[in-house]
Structure formats: structure tokens, C-alpha cells
Design a protein that fits this description.
Layout: H1 3-11, H2 21-44, H3 51-54, H4 58-81, H5 89-112, H6 128-150, H7 157-179, H8 190-210
Keywords: Membrane, Transmembrane, Transmembrane helix
Organism: Bordetella ansorpii
Transmembrane segments: 29-48, 60-79, 91-112, 127-145, 157-178, 190-211
Length: 213
């Protein structure tokens, strides 16, 4: 077979790719991931009976601002990482900014509280249990994002894994926050924030194996 014949056969019936194909794939993964996270939440923890009442309060939405902002920025980052040759430094800065800001708030709250009162701070479920719970809730979102990226064209596989790990971790924090709607709106738990780098690490390890062409 001549080279030209091979090229002609490969090019037969090819349709142009929609310019929104990447965004659609990632948005679909986002929806599937949140659905999977919610299913795990309902199966493992259950849904709070007072959630409808809590949704009518300002504090409920203030608590959700951090994970929602991180999800939005991480979705843009994932879109960049899925396109070979696209710069992603600015997208990384925007996606990591909410995480860094929340860690700063946590430290500031801790330092501003007198030592004898720090143990009384309503910091929620701290410790390995809380971190592990968020990581568990993030796994369906990570799997959905990996599946979407597998069908796209990322070339920086480890970075891509970290990026979609950031997206999945933020989804896990979002769903975990829904699990605890009655906690104070000013509750800041460093373990919740640290769960995001943990999911990023999982994504960094798995992506070169799963996304390899």
C-alpha cells in the first residue's frame, strides 16, 4: 500500500471536531462526578434532614463559596491541560488561589484565638477521618475526569492528573460540606482543605498510567 493511499483511507469520513468538544466532555464529567459523589455521600453518610432549612440561610451558601469557586477555576485549568501546547500557568494560579486563601484563613483564625480557647474552636471533624472521608467522596469525580481526559489529548500527564485531582478534590469538599449543613458558616477545617492536595497526589500518580497514549 502506498503512503498516499494509507493517508487517504485514514482521512476518509473524518468529521471536523467541534470547538466546544473539550468543554462539553469536561462538563459532562463534572456532572457525572457530582452525581457519583452524591451517591457515595448518601450511601456512606446519609443526607442531613435539616438541609432544606439550611439552604434558606446565608451561612449555607457562604460555606459553599470556597469549593464552588475552586471547581470553576479548576474546570478552566482542566480545559487548558486537555489542549496540547496551551499555557496553563495563569490557570494554575487561579485554581490554587482559593485553596491557599482558605489555608491562610485557617491559620489566621487559629493564631488570632487565645491559646486557652483554641481547642474550643468549632473546626468540625478534624483528623484523618475527615480527610479520608473527603478523599473517598472525591474518587467518583476523579474517575469521571480521568475518563474524559482519556478521550482528549493531554500531553503533560502528571500535571493533568494533578489538575483533575484538584477539580475532583474540590467536588469532594463541596459534597462533604452538604453533609454538614448545620455546622457554623465560619467553620474552617484545615483537614478539609488538605484533602484537595491528597486527591491531587492520587491524580498525579495515576494519570501517567491511565492517560498514556
Amino acid at each position: 500500500m502506498q503512503t498516499q493511499d494509507l493517508i487517504s483511507r485514514l482521512a476518509t469520513d473524518l468529521a471536523p471536531v467541534s470547538p466546544n468538544a473539550v468543554s462539553r466532555a469536561l462538563n459532562r464529567a463534572l456532572v457525572l462526578g457530582l452525581a457519583g459523589n452524591t451517591a457515595v455521600l448518601a450511601g456512606v453518610y446519609g443526607i442531613g434532614s435539616d438541609m432544606p432549612e439550611q439552604m434558606l440561610t446565608a451561612g449555607f451558601w457562604i460555606k459553599l463559596a470556597f469549593p464552588l469557586g475552586t471547581i470553576a477555576a479548576a474546570l478552566t485549568l482542566a480545559d487548558r491541560l486537555a489542549r496540547p501546547g496551551y499555557p496553563s500557568r495563569r490557570a494554575w494560579l487561579k485554581a490554587l488561589a482559593p485553596v491557599a486563601a482558605m489555608l491562610a484563613v485557617t491559620v489566621a483564625l487559629k493564631m488570632a484565638t487565645p491559646a486557652e480557647l483554641r481547642l474550643r474552636l468549632p473546626l468540625g471533624e478534624t483528623g484523618i477521618g475527615g480527610l479520608a472521608g473527603i478523599v473517598l467522596l472525591s474518587l467518583p469525580a476523579l474517575a469521571a475526569a480521568m475518563h474524559a481526559m482519556k478521550r482528549l489529548a493531554p500531553t503533560r500527564l502528571a500535571l493533568t492528573g494533578a489538575g483533575i485531582g484538584l477539580l475532583a478534590g474540590a467536588q469532594g469538599v463541596f459534597v462533604y460540606t452538604l453533609f454538614r449543613p448545620a455546622s457554623p458558616w465560619f467553620m474552617v477545617d484545615a483537614w478539609h482543605v488538605c484533602a484537595i492536595p491528597a486527591v491531587m497526589a492520587i491524580g498525579t500518580i495515576l494519570a501517567p498510567r491511565i492517560l498514556r497514549w
